[in-house]
Automatic annotation (TrEMBL):
It comes from Chryseobacterium defluvii. This is Phosphoribosylformylglycinamidine cyclo-ligase. Its EC number is 6.3.3.1. Residues 54-159 form the PurM-like N-terminal domain. Residues 171-323 form the PurM-like C-terminal domain. Belongs to the AIR synthase family. GO terms for molecular function: ATP binding; phosphoribosylamine-glycine ligase activity; phosphoribosylformylglycinamidine cyclo-ligase activity.
Length: 330
């Protein structure tokens, strides 16, 4: 019997099935700027209507949160997570997402699972006026075990050069406003899985995995609502490393983000993890978002307007003079 690609563990037909299951939905994310469709070697996106455009790009994955989805066979939210982790990053610079590409790797491709993951990306792209214009599915037996998947994404956005938000205009006296997260988002799941090994256990009247798999919040509409009304000095996406690592990334030298942790609305599942795992409060804030998915820095006179524009936002601190970049009073 002769060797074939299929006998080596790669089933091309399953890949074709995946494309068939997602092609129509993916096409629904396209607009007039997309010049070709799935199947080309490269994706074409035409840019127009900008005076001095700057492209802003971001890439990320969902980490070991994927393990929760695989173990519980609940894949629908993972694609949303993948898109959100990339798109939320470029929002920090005032960019609008233009297009998104995905990369899906596995040991043995199941077209149903792959399609469910990609359709989550489609849902997120639609919600962010973004086109899913390409991707890659890699079946790699020997590198991954059957049932294993990994997923990554790549988002490209655009902003006028004179409207880039980079933190350079932050000054003492500015207010720091928090936008709540939807939970753990897609960070810290190695610790989450260690403390919560049983995803099926009941938590607040439902299986724990339902809480763990709540997708990363998409902030496109919120951020651009504020940018359209207020001059924003800085935006930080609170991902791995929490407030400690992400807020300082936008703070100029000589200034400090003074944050009062007692004002932060910490999700109950994070408090349960802290208690059950014997995790210190400092470690919690250095690992998780602790309920703050984004922070916005604005002039003090605009703070009330931002709070009015965003129903669930709230103030957590202000910019002061100092060399630490962040002072988080826990």
């Amino acid at each position: 019997m002769s060797n074939t690609y299929k006998s080596a563990g790669v089933d091309k037909e399953e890949g074709y099935k995946t494309v068939d299951k997602i092609k129509k939905a993916v096409g629904e994310t396209h607009n007039s700027n997309v010049l070709n469709h799935l199947g080309s070697f490269g994706a074409f996106y035409e840019i127009g209507g900008y005076k001095n455009p700057v492209l802003v790009s971001g890439t990320d994955g969902v980490g070991t949160k994927l393990k929760v989805a695989l173990d519980t066979k609940k894949y629908g939210s993972i694609g949303i997570d993948c898109f959100a982790m990339c798109a939320n990053d470029i929002l920090c610079h005032g960019a609008k997402p233009l297009f998104f590409l995905d990369y899906l790797a596995c040991g043995k491709l199941d077209s149903e699972i792959a399609a469910e993951i990609v359709l989550g990306m489609v849902e997120a792209c639609k919600d962010n006026n973004c086109a899913l214009i390409g991707g890659e599915t890699a079946e790699m037996p020997g590198m991954y075990q059957p049932g294993d998947y990994d997923v990554a994404g790549f988002c490209v956005g655009i902003v006028e050069k004179d409207q880039i938000i980079d933190g350079s205009k932050i000054k003492a006296g500015d207010k720091i406003i928090a936008l709540p997260s939807s939970g753990f988002h897609s960070n810290g799941f190695s610790l989450v899985r260690k403390v919560f090994p049983n995803f099926e256990e009941e938590f607040e009247g439902k299986p724990l995995y339902e809480t763990l798999l709540v997708p990363t919040r998409l902030y496109y509409k919120d951020i651009h609502k504020v940018i359209g009304e207020v001059n924003v000095a800085g935006i930080a996406h609170i991902t791995g490393g929490g407030l400690y690592e992400n807020v300082p990334r936008i703070i100029p030298e000589g200034l400090c983000a003074s944050i009062d942790a007692s004002k932060i609305q910490i999700p109950s599942v994070m408090l349960e993890l802290e208690k059950r795992g014997g995790v210190t409060r400092e470690e919690m804030f250095g690992t998780f978002n602790m309920g703050v998915g984004m922070t916005i820095v604005v002039d003090a006179e605009h703070a009330e307007k931002v709070l009015h524009l965003l129903d669930d936002a709230y103030e957590i601190g202000e910019i002061t003079e100092g060399s630490e970049k962040i002072n988080l009073s826990i």
